[in-house]
Amino acid sequence: MRKEYDFTQAKRGAVLPSSGKTRITIMLDDDILAFFREKAATAGTGYQTMINQALRNALAKESDDEREEPLTIDNLRRVLREELHAI
To answer: What is the DSSP letter of 7?
Structure first.
């Protein structure tokens, strides 16, 4: 091992860049972070992976909610007619 190293040409950063991911700083409540860390420890996975999955699930649920046809008076009348006709 050398006694001195020359870091004048050194660069900061990850050794291997990860594609499809971006490093950010985010502020989370302590109880939320503790929950995911505990859950990740029991599941044997990373807590950041679990937070990412929870965010994906929330986005998927929101997309599903947006796909539903909004309840308008015309839609309500149509459904009522169909249901009353079936009786």
So the answer is: -
